[in-house]
Design goal:
10 helices, 64% helix, mainly alpha
Length: 214
């Protein structure tokens, strides 16, 4: 057993445990942090197959952006997670069946080399000086250019739809116009008011210690 195989089994075990913690943790923040660990571990597994670009993209996009947003949403929204978990055990048999089918399919794919179920062969390592980013980019922008552009359009539509849903007018909600905020000047925000003193200052005592008459 090589060192690469040992590293694969170690990080694969961590990935499985962290993925189970995502769906079993009662605290949503703990579940989100377990998902972050799953992404990091998946990135390590991608680096083992020399897919450094995908590994770095997974860390930067999902861990650095998506999961940070999830954590903000989970911590800021007052969600009753006990209500959401009420139907967990009712759907457990169906979820277990789906998970078993997916696990069986992955085992068949991984065992294809030894059983001869398919013509898959081991992926040869890239020759020295060849970039895997170029190997990934050339098919995307040549053979799969149209699907890539369609995916970009769908993402753009999703962004516009999310912004439109956020900007809906709701009752009892205050709105701020950014253009009005930018156009504000100092005189619009600060006003200096001169007011007379409400209480007169007491007079200085006379010489000899006599106090002024009340």
């Amino acid at each position: 057993m090589t060192l690469t195989t040992v590293i694969f089994y170690i990080f694969a075990a961590i990935l499985i445990v962290s993925a189970l913690r995502v769906i079993t943790a009662k605290n949503p923040v703990h579940a989100a942090l377990s998902l972050v660990l799953s992404f990091f571990t998946g990135a390590v597994l991608w680096m083992l197959i020399e897919a450094e670009f995908l590994a770095i993209s997974l860390v930067l996009v999902y861990v650095g952006a998506v999961m940070v947003l999830f954590l903000f949403v989970v911590m800021m929204l007052d969600i009753n997670f006990e209500e959401l978990r009420k139907g967990f055990w009712n759907y457990l048999p169906v979820a277990g069946l789906v998970a078993a089918i997916m696990a069986g399919e992955m085992v068949m794919i991984l065992a294809a080399q030894s059983t001869g179920l398919s013509g898959f062969s081991s992926v040869p390592p890239l020759p020295e000086g060849v970039s895997n980013i170029k190997q990934l980019g050339v098919p995307i922008y040549t053979d799969y250019l149209l699907p890539f552009e369609l995916a970009a359009v769908l993402l753009l539509v999703a962004i516009i739809a999310a912004i439109s849903l956020t900007l809906r007018r709701r009752k009892n909600t205050k709105y701020i116009n950014p253009a009005d905020q930018i156009a504000v000047k100092r005189n619009d925000r600060v006003r200096i008011v001169k007011m007379a003193a409400e209480v007169e200052a007491p007079e200085a005592p006379a010489e000899g210690g006599d106090k002024p008459a009340a």
